[in-house]
Amino acid sequence: MGTALSAKTIAVSTVLALLPAVALADTKIAAIFDLTGGLNIYGIQQNNALKLAVDDINTKGGVLGAPIDVVSYDAQSEQSKYIQYSNTAILKDQVKALFAGLTSSSREAIRPIARKANIPYFYSALYEGGACDKQTFVTGSSASQQLSVLIDWAVKKYGKKIYVMAPDYNFGTISAHWIKEYAKKAGAEVVGVDFLALTVTDYAPTIQKIQAAKPDFVVALPVGANQTGFLEQFAAAGLKDTIGVVSTNYGSGNQQVVVSPEAGKGLIASQGYFQPVENPANAAFVKLWQAKYGSDTPIVSEAVDVWNAVHLWAAAVNKAGSADTKPVVAALESGLTFEAPNGMVKLEPGSHHLRQNIYIAEGDDKHSFKIVETFPDAAPTYENEKCDLVAHPSLAKQFTPEDQ
Amino acid sequence: MQIDYLATVLLSSLSSASILLIATIGLAVVFGLMGVINLAHGEFLMIGAYTALTATQSGIPYVLSIPIAVVVTMAIGATVEILIIRRLYGRLFDTMLATWGLSIAFYQLAVLIFGTVSPGIGMPRYSLKIGAYSLAGYPLLMIGIAALMGLFVYGLMTRTVYGMKARAAIQVPEMAQAIGIESSRVNTLTFSIGCGLAGFAGAVLLPIVPATPSMGFAFVIKAFLTVVVAGPVTLTGSVLAAIGLGGGASITASFLTSVAGDAFFFLVTALLLWLYPMGISAKWRRKM
Asked: What ipTM does the predicted assembly reach?
């Protein structure tokens, strides 16, 4: 991987040395993902998806009649590297678009850099929602998008008492807020909340508090592989048969592979994509992916989010007839749609978020999922309501439900 | 507060403390007997976990995979001692830097060999019921494992010829050499035993903490602080520090929130180090 990339970089820089930059017709984009470090569970697949999407577009003629070039950086799961490489990509490599980031903190670090340089920036991960910026486009699903359907569904299936187990940073706290909000709408009640640091490996206290609160179901939002220990201990304590477990991010880092079949069976997850989704676009995507990367590791939703981001950007460039920011952003705000592996998606002009299907899936005993229900065309309601970048192009903030 | 809740909190806090102790003991041995802070300790734990996982995946019963993990981590530990640690004796910060670098290399090797996710082996699904509460059985078993581990190390260091040599080699190396103890070989064995204990921990905790390349990070900070709080009498000190810090954090988490539990751990650590800069056992007259 590294050698192929550097050979290409050398070739590109040789050409650059010989020709003035304007003569280079190829359009260059940057990929900054976590290829090493704790977050590479997501970052490697995001990067793979970007390369696959670029290959796919290039074999079909590229953008503006020339292939897309990629400069790739490894953010090493470190916040400072995102800032450093975003600047490098924009200032030195002069890229036309930026595809980067997994965590909300990385996005918040990149967003102002992209705004200042006026370069379209695509953020492709499920997250807590509310990011609003003229240059930023979000292709993952937001917490409210996923939770609105999930909580409703779970209240009907399990009952009205909810316990929340969430990681102790803004993804967890904002998700917990939405859970309370949607619980109220569904006539249900949150009977307890526990926030956990990412390094916690001891879940016994949480499990006791859950038993004391006697909920009908638990909304568990484990981040990273360590937190799958919670699901294991929950099942081992014999609670899984009486208390349901639902999640908006279980599976997003292939947790279903780590969790044992006994503990994983029957867990409910809701996301914008699961590999078993059935449609022709997904069949073609999975085939393409497995031909290049093999079938050992299931494809995570963030990979599809990146695939969609690159295709939407390419469609916008071709539609605009230019890779310059102003016409591309205008084209991105023209109500673009894309036949994605997760069904038809539509980029909302005002909020720069995706209208997309939300799937509810149930874990089986073979480290995989089966889709139990599809909520088609779920809108990013909260983002649409708060953030209208067509009417207010100078908006630049992250809305959180606490502002209300 | 009902009595059954109190009983479960007490039991599970004891098991939390035991898990911390299991993860810490190898670090304590290496630090206490060699004065080496092994920042790759967490990665030895990870190697133990992956060894046990690979062994079980190839059909070996889980119980037998644990000694395999110990042998593998001991062998790697001995190699690391001969190649790296031996050259840095008495240079505390250099060994920290070297073992930290080693931990990054081991981490990335694990990613390259095993990928970012591997199937876990799951936890035996027996549980204990106390009143209205039920507790997963396997974590409770760790109380017994931690006790056995502590006794084993205590016996090894105080009742065997190796133990006497090991303590002699680190306390007065010149004198030890003068009476015919080959201190470099003893140190290799000590470091190797420390790594083997980490490997044992990784393997025995595998059902609770699934094997991932980054699993070491979750343990190493708390294990490290436990050893620092323990001070020079490493074994007894570590047992007390693990029970006090780990158990206390778990009780706090049960009655308040998990964040409060973590805060308890770090605040009490800071307080103890302020009161006892050399560790709680600085003035004790015990040897282990």
From this structure: 0.80
